[in-house]
Design brief:
Blueprint lengths: L5 H14 L10 H25 L1 H11 L13 H11 L6 E7 L5 H6 L3 E8 L2 H10 L6 E5 L13 E7 L10 H14 E13 L5 H15 L3 E9 L1 E9 L1 H5 L1
Parallel strand pairs: 1-2, 1-4, 2-3, 4-5
Antiparallel strand pairs: 5-7, 6-7
Helix pairs in contact: 2-3
The chain binds S-adenosylmethionine (SAM).
Length: 254
């Protein structure tokens, strides 16, 4: 997704820095992390190409077969992604979750961080190769499990099981991402939650006029518009947008 709008992305970086009155201390590491964004852009471009020929599952699987870390999220060379995971976990309500789900977990790096905040965590990803890799990386963690699965086709057996669902940088890959698809995915995610459960949604966000960021905004708006979710808090950070929602079946039923 990055690849198409690379010029917009760099304009976004400039605009963000220029407009940021409360520049975050870790913005200083940005020059080193530009490599991360470029490599991610290459991965996204490859996936977009392959997806047209072979479909989504095959495209993501190929990315994970070709590289151990397609978005260089685990590389010690780049700090952005690790800091972002920490920041996302810090946005969660201060409670110990019973059963957390990381949807589109990739290598399970965020899943591992969630393991410190929940009794059990399940990571699901469309690419079996990502799941194999995530299992290897989390081998020492007894409360973490992974399984292959498609957000668009999750088993009903998962419904109502999770008091936390995290969806980070996944939904903008759904194709097509029209209103109908988005509406049903949002409802499906609500189904996964226990009454009053928490959903953390995060997507990259550079600046309001950039096309990628508009897609992210559209995804967050679809959650906001769903009567089954109440917004608890919204956070705009460098370079992501995160919203914490609470499932509100109980309150609606009351
Ligand atoms: C950019 S990575 C983000 C991974 C992880 N959430 C993170 O923040 O590190 C996007 C992930 O979404 C997964 N994905 C894409 N479409 C999916 C779908 N329909 N169902 C489940 N996972 C999907 C991809 O395989 C990939 O691992």
């Amino acid at each position: 997704m990055f690849a198409t709008y690379l010029p917009g992305f760099f304009a976004g970086i400039g605009a963000f820095i220029a407009s940021s009155r409360r520049a975050e201390p870790w913005l200083a590491m940005l020059p080193a992390d530009i490599g991360l964004f470029l490599k991610s852009a290459r991965t996204d471009a490859k996936i977009a190409r392959l997806r047209k020929e072979q479909g989504s599952q095959a495209a993501f699987e190929a990315a994970y077969r070709e590289s151990d870390d397609p978005w260089v999220s685990a590389s010690p060379r780049y700090r952005y992604q690790g800091l972002k995971y920490d920041r996302l976990v810090a946005l969660l309500p201060a409670t110990r979750f019973r059963y957390a789900l990381d949807l589109g977990c990739g290598l399970g790096l965020l899943t591992q961080k969630l393991a410190a905040r929940a009794e059990r965590v399940l990571g699901i990803d469309i690419a079996p190769a990502a799941i194999e890799n995530a299992r290897r990386r989390a081998a020492g963690l007894g409360n973490v499990a992974f399984q292959a699965g498609d957000i668009l086709n999750l088993p009903a057996s998962l419904d109502g099981k999770f008091d936390l669902v995290v969806v980070a940088d996944v939904l903008y890959y759904l194709s097509p991402l029209d209103e109908g698809v988005l509406e049903s995915v949002v409802a499906r995610i609500a189904d996964l939650l226990t009454p009053n459960g928490t959903c953390l949604l995060a997507n990259h966000f550079f600046f309001a006029a950039d096309p990628d960021s508009r897609v992210s905004r559209k995804i967050h708006r679809a959650f906001e518009a769903c009567p089954r979710f109440a917004v608890m808090s919204e956070h705009r950070r460098a370079f992501f947008l995160a919203t914490v929602f609470s499932e509100r079946r109980l309150r609606l039923a009351a």
